[in-house]
Amino acid sequence: MGFDIAMSGIQAINEQLGTISNNIANAGTFGFKSSRANFASQYAGDQASGTKIGSVSQSIGNIGNTTQTGRGMDAAINGRGFFVVQDGLGAPQYTRVGIFDSDANGFLVDQAGRRVQGFAQAPGSTVLGPLGDLTLPGGQIPAVATTKLTYTSNFSADWKVPVATAVFEDPNPTTLPPKVPDPSSYNMSRVSVAYDARGNQHSITQYFIKTDASTVTVKYAVDGNPSGTPVNQDAVLKFNSDGKLETINGTAITEVPPPTHTLALALNNNGAVDPLTISVDYLGGTMYAGEASTSVNKSDGYGAGNFTGTEIDRDGSLIAKYSNGQRQTVGKIALATFPSETSLVPTSDTSWSANLASGTPLYTTPGVGMAGSLSTSALENSNVDVTTELVGLMTAQRNYQANSKVLQTESTVLQSLMQAM
After folding, report:
1. 225-229, 242-246, 338-342 — which one is most confidently predicted on average?
2. Phi, psi of 407 (to 5 degrees)
3. Fewest CB within 10 A of the end CB: N or C in the chain?
4. Which DSSP string corresponds to 208-237?
5. pLDDT tens across 115-143, in order?
6. Which domains are assigned to the chain?
């Protein structure tokens, strides 16, 4: 019986050593979760017959430290959850390793070439599609014409009413160069950018003229040519005694919706005249003493752009980037959480599959429900504590030696008995 008990101990320790060795070997593997071999007693009826490895526990809940990689398509999960991927047979698998890229067919895949699952999203929309393969866009995005210009500024109360009269019309634009207004006829000018439907960029110059103690008139020129703007499109900004904007073109800003100034432009594009209507928003403007300062000068619309790459945001958004500076969300990466994640079945050192014991996965997006948010341009390290594993290795070695000593002693006792007979 002593031989059998000692042999069971040696066999169990061999299995334990295999688990410890695997942990140490994967101490540098991203997303690896360490395991622990748990010993259990063996009985033959009511008599002890040795030991065995009763189970192997996974430390899935222990999150490893993160390493910054500087790569926009890397992501680590802060908290619970798993990235969802599909293998070649269409079976879902779950991993903590967020090393992503695109394949030849434009699908988002992980480092093993498995398709990453998520929710498709149309650019400009917040509505998420059904769970499925995520695809990355390619090629160009078309130009979008400017429809709104937002300009916020302090128009200095120290301005003087110009003595000179501003001339903003070119009497013969076909033969004469644009006529630049006399600088003494206005108080300030600012240039804004607008795009037509073909993606051509145009400059809209705003000339601000103080007409009385509480009024500023705005005149416009397009691409440096006042004749590009039809006449009688001046904006009139009226301020109250507190220096806050009160009316735009006579309409109180307290109206719903608040008033804006409409510019109807006729743009000359290589002989073709393209119309462009822009709503100019001056809300937030002030007339305080001191220097005139611009805080907002921006417009919507953009020219055509070529796809340059993708990156992942903290909320799992898959963002496509373009050469014109535009960034469009084209989907969100899904995370899966489980009622009992420690019951997942490992299919590799960094992937798992669900079973009855783990429960049904709940699919959501990062930062929603029990799913953790993402650290972008980062990866989760192995959660192996090498020092603890080495201590376990030495303990296993002593246990192995002790069981070997039992075998040696048992053999000596039997030999002595045989000689005594």
Report:
1. 242-246
2. -60, -45
3. C
4. EEEEETTEEEEEEEETTBGGGS-SS--EEE
5. 999 999 988 788 999 999 999 887 888 99
6. 2-61+382-420 (no CATH), 72-124+318-377 (no CATH), 148-303 (2.60.98.20)
**pLDDT of amino acid 227:** 47
Distance from C-alpha of 344 to C-alpha of 352, rounded to nearest angstrom: 6
- DSSP secondary structure code for residue 408 in this structure: H
pLDDT at residue 246 above 80?
Answer: yes
- Encoding tokens for residue 280? 């100019």
Q: Is the pLDDT of residue 164 over 60?
A: yes
Whether 75 contacts 375, CB under 8 Å: yes
Q: How does pLDDT run across 58-74, given as a tens digit for each residue? A: 888 888 999 999 999 99
The Cα–Cα gap between 154 and 287 comes to 5
**Per-residue buried b or exposed e for 35-52, using 16+ beta carbons within 10 Å of the residue's own CB:** bbbeeeeeeeeeeeebbe
Residue owning tokens 């006529």? 179
Considering the chain, what is the average pLDDT of its residues? Answer: 87
Cis check for the bond before 177: say yes or no (omega within 30 of 0): no
400's tokens: 């192995």
- Residue 124 CA to residue 216 CA, distance in Å, equals 36
> What does the pLDDT read at residue 163?
86
Return the closest-CA partner of residue 66 out of 385, 376, 389, 388: 376
